[in-house]
Amino acid sequence: MAANRSSAADRRARIEEMRRAEQARERRNRLITIVLSTAVVAGLVGFGAYVLNKENEEKQQQEAAAKAPIKDEKTWDAKKLGRNHPTTPVSYPMKPPVGGDHHPAWQNCDGDVYKKPVRNENAVHSLEHGAVWVTYNDKAPAADVKKLEEKVGKTSYSLMSPVKDQAGAIMLSAWGKQVTVDGADDPRVDAFFTKYIQGPQTPEPGAACTGGVGQ
To answer: Keywords in UniProt for this one (predicted)?
Structure first.
């Protein structure tokens, strides 16, 4: 009898020990879950704050770039640039033109790269819609032309075409704005794009850059 009581007591003791061990495991698992959840939440919060800060920094940089003057940029009084829509050729006082009367149809400018010259009158209409027009002549290095083609190709509201008799090897034009740059890596290229694609100089912001004249 005594042996049976001892055996029963041993079983109860083992069962109680197993129960305590199971409870300890459950507490450890809950603690691990809480710690991991806290870490995940903290990580998400930290990542969200990083993304917001990054977006704010980029926005501030873009705003600063939009306000900063661009070296050697030429400007024409937008109020003196005609906006009529004749279907006959227009004589422009600058080359490439940066504004003035233009054809009723715009040149497609949704990242369009043209290997042949386009009509000034159509391209000027694109500038009216807020596009940047990249032009080059035979003096432009082939490597620079290729880089600019790649940039234009992935940038909406931009177009590119050759203008053989322009003064500079590589020139960028927007409505009432123009600059000659030293090459594709000239920082003024990015600055001009940032400042004038759908920029404050645009007479018709948001107007279409597709559905016009192609080549």
So the answer is: Membrane, Transmembrane, Transmembrane helix
Q: Count CB neighbours of 45 within 10 A.
A: 10
Per-residue pLDDT of 142-172, as tens digits, reads: 999 999 999 999 999 999 999 999 999 999 9
The strand order across the sheet containing 177-181 reads: 74-75, 177-181, 170-174, 132-136, 158-162, 110-113
DSSP letters, the chain, are -HHHHHHHHHHHHHHHHHHHHHHHHHHHHHHHHHHHHHHHHHHHHHHHHHHHHHHHHHHHHHHHHHHSPPTT-EE--GGGS-----SS----SSSS--SSS--SSPBP-EEEE-SS---HHHHHHHHHTT-EEEEE-TTS-HHHHHHHHHHHHT-SSEEEEE-TT-SSSEEEEETTEEEEESSTT-HHHHHHHHHHTT-TT-SSTT--SSSSB--
CB 103 within 8 A of CB 87: yes
Burial of 52 (0-12, 13-18, 19+ CB in 10 A): exposed
Predicted local confidence at residue 189, as pLDDT: 98
β-strands 158-162, 132-136: how paired?
parallel
Residue 82 tokens read as 């005609």
pTM: 0.72
Q: Please answer whether residues 101 and 210 qualify as being in contact, where contact means their C-beta atoms are separated by less than 8 angstroms.
A: no
